[in-house]
């Protein structure tokens, strides 16, 4: 299998994947970001498929087609989103059905969306965690592959809680991808107690 990682942020999960020896053949981002500098430092091909708009006129399917064409040109067979900031459209799910993974900084189905950590804190939750799942067209709702809880501490702010969650994501996402690459798809997990919003 040939693994592509999609990023938009700091790239700490990408770093963990590279350091774990996952066979990453391509890193793609939707914008210039620190993760792309990290990819370059790891000597992995890194391509910015630049988003031309963040407004209502964004051509989501057109953008998705450009990105999907690149994945196919490079022979990618498995796609891992690691903090990717663009919701992809149907074309990638047509051509990579069941082969797109995502990690999310909350215990889905609780707290989907881009502000999961802030929403967790605002809600006064005492337990959070992370979820590795197969991505589907509907954001943060595909079949869950792995979950692990993380405590929310009384003095947490968004940055401290997110970092505690990311420590777990870096291990859990790597382990889950490794299982899939080894042909041992993880059993779909049942959401732990306390995971509902
Ligand atoms: C991770 O916490 C990941 O779960 C989150 O972005 C972070 C990326 O961290 N993704 C989402 O919130 C997607 N909904 P990184 O840039 O340090 O690897």
Describe this structure in words.
This protein is α/β, with parallel strands linked by helices and 197 residues long. It folds into two domains: 1-97, Rossmann fold; 102-197, Formyl transferase, N-terminal domain (Rossmann fold, 3-Layer(aba) Sandwich). The chain contains six helices and seven strands. Helix 1 packs parallel to helix 6. The longest helix has 24 residues, at 158-181. The chain starts with a strand and ends in a 16-residue tail after the last helix. Bound molecules: glycinamide ribonucleotide (GAR).
List keywords for this structure.
single chain, 197 residues, alpha/beta, Rossmann fold, 6 helices, globular, disordered C terminus, binds glycinamide ribonucleotide
What is the helix content?
Answer: 25-40%
Which segments are poorly predicted (pLDDT under 50) over 5 or more consecutive residues? 188-197
Structural class based on helices, strands and sheet pairing: alpha/beta
Overall radius of gyration: 16 Å
CATH architecture annotation name of the largest domain? 3-Layer(aba) Sandwich
Bulk shape? globular
CATH names the topology of the largest domain as: Rossmann fold
Q: Please describe the biggest sheet, giving its number of strands, its sense, and whether it closes into a barrel.
A: 7 strands, mixed
Number of helices: 6
The total beta strand count reads 7
CATH class category label of the largest domain: Alpha Beta
Average pLDDT score: 93
